[in-house]
Amino acid sequence: MTGPITIRKAPGRWTVRSGGAILGESVNALELSEGDLAPVIYFPREDIAMAFLDASDKKTRCASKGEASYFSIVNRSSVTENAVWTYENPLEALTPIRGHLAFVLSESVKVEQI
């Protein structure tokens, strides 16, 4: 079950890694909480090494956030398809996450507070 969405500045410094490579580090990340779902960290695009990301054709629609676009992570050892999402034009209440990227957590993709 989901509920109200809140967005706040994520405290401290955050990093995202894939396949051992550091994709980004930020002190300006945002934390989005939605009901009983685990919070999601959104990184400002300028804090992510975009050279590791390739735009994907995948799009999804969330009634509470809008349309999401996806990227795949490409590094020397692997490609992790559709592992990153962004809301380029989120619904009005969620404009703080515009220009931010969130990551699908997996064995090869880690988001951590450092």
TrEMBL record:
InterPro entries reported in the protein's UniProt record: DUF427, DUF427_sf
Gene3D superfamilies for the chain: Domain of unknown function (DUF427)
Domain DUF427: 15-104
Recorded superkingdom: Bacteria
Pfam annotation, one family: NTP_transf_9
UniProt protein name: DUF427 domain-containing protein
Source species: Ruegeria spongiae
